[in-house]
Amino acid sequence: MAQRSVHYEAAFEDFLRSRGAPYVAVDEAKKSLFGRHALKSFDFVVYSSTGPNLLVDVKGRKFPDSVRGLKRDGQRAWENWITRDDAESLIQWQGVFGVEFQAILTFAYWLQGPPQRSPFEDVHLFRQKSYAFMAVPLERYVALAKPRSRKWRTLSAPSAVFAGEVRSFTDFL
Fold first, then answer.
1. Is residue 127 a contact partner of residue 91, using CB atoms and an 8 Å limit?
2. How far, in Å, CA of 77 to CA of 80, rounded?
3. pLDDT (tens digit, 0 to 9) for every residue of the chain, 173 residues total?
Protein backbone atom coordinates (compact mmCIF):
# COMPACT_ATOMS: atom_id res chain seq x y z
CA MET A 1 0.00 0.00 0.00
CA ALA A 2 1.35 3.43 -0.90
CA GLN A 3 2.05 5.93 1.86
CA ARG A 4 -0.94 8.23 1.71
CA SER A 5 -1.23 11.24 3.97
CA VAL A 6 -4.94 11.73 3.29
CA HIS A 7 -6.87 9.24 5.42
CA TYR A 8 -9.78 9.08 2.96
CA GLU A 9 -7.49 7.89 0.16
CA ALA A 10 -5.63 5.50 2.48
CA ALA A 11 -8.97 4.03 3.58
CA PHE A 12 -10.08 3.65 -0.05
CA GLU A 13 -6.84 1.89 -0.96
CA ASP A 14 -7.30 -0.46 2.00
CA PHE A 15 -10.88 -1.09 0.81
CA LEU A 16 -9.61 -2.01 -2.69
CA ARG A 17 -7.02 -4.37 -1.23
CA SER A 18 -9.62 -6.02 1.03
CA ARG A 19 -11.81 -6.69 -2.03
CA GLY A 20 -8.91 -8.05 -4.09
CA ALA A 21 -9.51 -5.39 -6.74
CA PRO A 22 -6.57 -4.79 -9.07
CA TYR A 23 -5.55 -1.13 -9.04
CA VAL A 24 -2.71 1.32 -9.54
CA ALA A 25 -2.29 4.24 -7.16
CA VAL A 26 -1.44 7.46 -9.01
CA ASP A 27 1.51 9.48 -7.74
CA GLU A 28 -0.03 12.77 -6.65
CA ALA A 29 3.32 14.54 -6.59
CA LYS A 30 3.54 14.54 -10.36
CA LYS A 31 1.40 16.85 -12.46
CA SER A 32 1.07 16.09 -16.13
CA LEU A 33 1.17 18.68 -18.84
CA PHE A 34 -0.99 18.36 -21.93
CA GLY A 35 -0.47 21.21 -24.32
CA ARG A 36 -0.02 24.29 -22.16
CA HIS A 37 -2.27 23.11 -19.36
CA ALA A 38 -1.40 21.19 -16.22
CA LEU A 39 -3.95 18.49 -15.49
CA LYS A 40 -4.94 17.75 -11.93
CA SER A 41 -4.16 14.14 -11.09
CA PHE A 42 -6.79 11.59 -10.21
CA ASP A 43 -6.10 9.03 -7.47
CA PHE A 44 -6.44 5.47 -8.78
CA VAL A 45 -6.81 3.35 -11.88
CA VAL A 46 -9.04 0.44 -10.88
CA TYR A 47 -9.49 -2.55 -13.15
CA SER A 48 -13.09 -3.75 -13.25
CA SER A 49 -14.36 -7.21 -14.09
CA THR A 50 -17.93 -6.02 -14.74
CA GLY A 51 -17.51 -2.96 -16.96
CA PRO A 52 -15.01 -0.38 -18.11
CA ASN A 53 -11.84 0.18 -16.12
CA LEU A 54 -12.08 3.15 -13.78
CA LEU A 55 -10.22 6.43 -13.41
CA VAL A 56 -11.06 7.23 -9.80
CA ASP A 57 -10.91 10.61 -8.11
CA VAL A 58 -11.54 10.19 -4.37
CA LYS A 59 -13.32 13.00 -2.54
CA GLY A 60 -13.28 12.75 1.24
CA ARG A 61 -16.26 14.07 3.17
CA LYS A 62 -17.66 13.57 6.66
CA PHE A 63 -21.10 12.01 6.90
CA PRO A 64 -23.12 13.20 9.91
CA ASP A 65 -24.62 10.92 12.52
CA SER A 66 -28.07 11.64 11.17
CA VAL A 67 -29.43 11.48 7.63
CA ARG A 68 -32.09 14.03 8.50
CA GLY A 69 -30.05 17.00 7.37
CA LEU A 70 -28.29 19.56 9.48
CA LYS A 71 -26.12 18.51 12.38
CA ARG A 72 -25.16 20.81 15.27
CA ASP A 73 -21.86 21.84 13.68
CA GLY A 74 -23.54 22.68 10.35
CA GLN A 75 -22.46 19.50 8.60
CA ARG A 76 -24.88 18.13 6.03
CA ALA A 77 -25.48 14.62 4.78
CA TRP A 78 -24.48 13.76 1.20
CA GLU A 79 -21.95 16.59 0.74
CA ASN A 80 -20.66 16.13 -2.82
CA TRP A 81 -18.99 19.30 -4.04
CA ILE A 82 -16.02 19.19 -6.39
CA THR A 83 -14.00 21.86 -8.18
CA ARG A 84 -14.41 22.65 -11.85
CA ASP A 85 -10.73 21.73 -12.21
CA ASP A 86 -11.53 18.26 -10.84
CA ALA A 87 -14.21 17.76 -13.50
CA GLU A 88 -12.29 19.32 -16.40
CA SER A 89 -9.10 17.39 -15.69
CA LEU A 90 -10.89 14.08 -15.22
CA ILE A 91 -12.74 14.56 -18.52
CA GLN A 92 -9.40 15.12 -20.26
CA TRP A 93 -7.87 12.06 -18.56
CA GLN A 94 -10.76 9.93 -19.79
CA GLY A 95 -10.01 11.16 -23.32
CA VAL A 96 -6.33 10.23 -22.91
CA PHE A 97 -7.12 6.72 -21.63
CA GLY A 98 -9.85 6.05 -24.19
CA VAL A 99 -13.15 4.21 -24.34
CA GLU A 100 -12.06 1.28 -22.19
CA PHE A 101 -11.91 3.62 -19.19
CA GLN A 102 -14.60 5.53 -17.34
CA ALA A 103 -13.98 8.59 -15.16
CA ILE A 104 -15.68 8.17 -11.81
CA LEU A 105 -16.02 10.28 -8.69
CA THR A 106 -15.83 8.30 -5.47
CA PHE A 107 -17.00 10.01 -2.32
CA ALA A 108 -15.28 8.50 0.70
CA TYR A 109 -17.69 9.26 3.51
CA TRP A 110 -16.18 9.09 7.01
CA LEU A 111 -19.12 8.14 9.19
CA GLN A 112 -19.46 10.38 12.23
CA GLY A 113 -21.73 7.96 14.06
CA PRO A 114 -22.24 4.22 14.33
CA PRO A 115 -22.52 2.51 10.92
CA GLN A 116 -25.93 1.04 11.80
CA ARG A 117 -27.36 4.58 11.97
CA SER A 118 -26.09 5.39 8.48
CA PRO A 119 -27.87 4.70 5.18
CA PHE A 120 -24.95 2.58 3.92
CA GLU A 121 -24.99 -1.20 3.56
CA ASP A 122 -21.30 -1.56 2.66
CA VAL A 123 -19.14 0.00 5.39
CA HIS A 124 -15.37 -0.40 5.61
CA LEU A 125 -13.46 -0.14 8.90
CA PHE A 126 -9.99 1.41 8.62
CA ARG A 127 -7.88 2.54 11.60
CA GLN A 128 -10.94 2.47 13.90
CA LYS A 129 -12.92 4.73 11.54
CA SER A 130 -15.90 3.68 9.44
CA TYR A 131 -16.13 4.67 5.78
CA ALA A 132 -18.63 4.24 2.98
CA PHE A 133 -17.42 4.56 -0.62
CA MET A 134 -20.13 5.85 -2.94
CA ALA A 135 -19.52 6.49 -6.61
CA VAL A 136 -21.03 8.16 -9.63
CA PRO A 137 -19.73 8.36 -13.19
CA LEU A 138 -18.31 11.82 -13.83
CA GLU A 139 -20.54 12.32 -16.87
CA ARG A 140 -23.66 11.73 -14.77
CA TYR A 141 -22.43 13.93 -11.93
CA VAL A 142 -21.73 16.85 -14.27
CA ALA A 143 -25.27 16.52 -15.69
CA LEU A 144 -26.71 16.80 -12.16
CA ALA A 145 -24.38 19.45 -10.73
CA LYS A 146 -24.90 23.17 -10.50
CA PRO A 147 -22.42 25.92 -9.65
CA ARG A 148 -21.89 26.12 -5.89
CA SER A 149 -19.38 28.97 -5.66
CA ARG A 150 -18.10 31.15 -8.47
CA LYS A 151 -15.22 32.38 -6.32
CA TRP A 152 -14.00 28.86 -5.50
CA ARG A 153 -15.08 27.41 -8.87
CA THR A 154 -17.01 24.57 -7.28
CA LEU A 155 -19.94 22.42 -8.38
CA SER A 156 -22.44 20.48 -6.31
CA ALA A 157 -25.46 18.29 -6.98
CA PRO A 158 -28.57 18.71 -4.82
CA SER A 159 -28.23 16.28 -1.89
CA ALA A 160 -31.51 14.41 -2.43
CA VAL A 161 -30.85 13.99 -6.17
CA PHE A 162 -27.27 12.92 -5.54
CA ALA A 163 -28.33 10.37 -2.90
CA GLY A 164 -30.67 8.81 -5.47
CA GLU A 165 -27.98 8.57 -8.17
CA VAL A 166 -24.89 7.49 -6.26
CA ARG A 167 -24.08 3.77 -5.87
CA SER A 168 -21.75 1.75 -3.72
CA PHE A 169 -18.30 1.63 -5.30
CA THR A 170 -18.53 -2.16 -5.08
CA ASP A 171 -21.16 -2.04 -7.85
CA PHE A 172 -18.48 -0.79 -10.26
CA LEU A 173 -16.02 -3.59 -9.53
1. no
2. 9
3. 555 789 999 999 999 999 999 999 997 655 565 555 678 899 999 999 999 999 999 999 999 986 555 455 556 899 999 999 999 999 999 999 999 999 999 999 999 999 999 999 999 999 999 999 999 999 999 999 999 998 999 999 999 999 999 999 999 99
Contacts of 142 (CB under 8 A, 6+ apart): 87, 91, 155
Number of other residues whose CB lies within 10 A of the CB of residue 159: 15
Distance CA 55, CA 61 (A): 19
Q: CATH for 7-172, among 3.40.1350.10, 3.40.50.1820, 3.30.200.20, 3.40.1190.20?
A: 3.40.1350.10
pTM of the model: 0.90
Residues 14 and 57: their CA atoms lie apart, in Å, by: 15
Q: What is the DSSP letter of 59?
A: E
**Residue 32 neighbours by CB distance under 10 Å:** 14
Q: Which helix (H) or strand (E) holds 14?
A: helix 7-19
